[in-house]
Design goal:
The protein is mostly helical and 286 residues long. The chain has 14 helices and no strands.
């Protein structure tokens, strides 16, 4: 191949890559448009939100943030605190219970192991709407309604089968030679689990923590059903309270508080993004 042909081939490859990246950028901007529009609307005076079409506001204001923060009976920081407590409890509960259950399925031998594992996987197919009524009756009998217990305690009982499956697949990739070496040195199951399996399972644990955080923080239905006291409302319920079906809705403050509500999710995701990619790529879901 002469120099001219090589230069043409190189230009063709670079042109193809340029077109590919341009298409990806346009696709990314299309996906980000609703988020950019919400941020733009949060910075506009409320009367201009649906009147202006562009993303760049002609008039900037922070009034939506100040009015939205104090628009309800409690400040919005109160709802952030409620969501933080529930989310922290859910993350800790899933990390502890799901990791223990996953270790049992991946390393231990017990009667009907395959049956229980299949039954656990089958529970993934049950939608929340099927079990919400029995759960409500059970928690009502226990006197847990209008408390955070229905949203936190089940997480300590390994009820999220997806995360158990995720960790089982990851633990199965770890060599059993490590377990056997520790057993020869006198380590029991608990020491093998805490000193060997868990440190090596950090990607799977980070993946579990990130997904649990995002799903719990954004959960609306469960929190709406179990928490009827306004003092216990969380961020998703508080955002819904800005919309009034019979009167005027506060769009500007709602968009402003929605922008703030996205902050913890983005921060938590960015902090564990490296482990999230490794956890998904090495847990059998690739």
């Amino acid at each position: 191949m002469n120099d001219t042909a090589f230069a043409r081939a190189l230009l063709a490859v670079r042109g193809s890559r340029l077109l590919t990246h341009a298409g990806l950028i346009l696709f990314g901007l299309a996906m980000l448009y609703p988020l950019l529009w919400m941020i733009s609307s949060a910075l506009k005076p409320e009367e201009l939100i649906f009147r202006e079409q562009g993303l760049i506001p002609t008039s900037f204001t922070l009034e939506n943030f100040t009015s939205g923060w104090n628009a309800m009976r409690y400040s919005f920081g109160h709802y952030f605190l409620n969501s933080a407590l529930i989310t922290a409890g859910a993350v800790v509960g899933n990390l502890l219970s799901c990791s223990l259950a996953a270790y049992a399925f991946a390393r231990l031998e017990f009667p009907l192991k395959r049956f229980w594992f299949a039954l656990m996987l089958g529970s993934i197919m049950l939608p929340l709407h099927v079990v919400i009524v029995p759960q409500y009756i059970l928690f009502s009998e226990l006197g847990w309604l209008n408390t955070f217990l229905p949203l936190i305690v089940p997480k300590f009982l390994a009820t999220d089968a997806f995360f158990i499956f995720l960790m089982v697949q990851f633990i199965r990739t770890l060599p059993r030679d490590l377990d056997e070496a520790a057993t020869i040195d006198g380590a029991g199951h608990w020491r093998v689990f805490s000193r060997i399996i868990m440190p090596l399972s950090m990607p799977a644990l980070a993946t579990t923590a990130i997904f649990t955080f995002i799903w719990t923080w954004n959960d609306f239905l469960s929190q709406l059903i179990f928490l009827t006291d306004p003092a216990l409302h969380t961020v998703p319920i508080a955002l819904r309270n800005f919309l009034d079906s019979s009167g005027e809705s506060s769009w500007g403050p709602m968009f402003a508080m929605s922008v703030l509500a996205l902050g913890p999710i983005f921060g938590f995701f960015l902090a564990g993004q490296k482990y999230l990619v490794r956890g998904i790529a090495t847990s059998g879901l690739k």
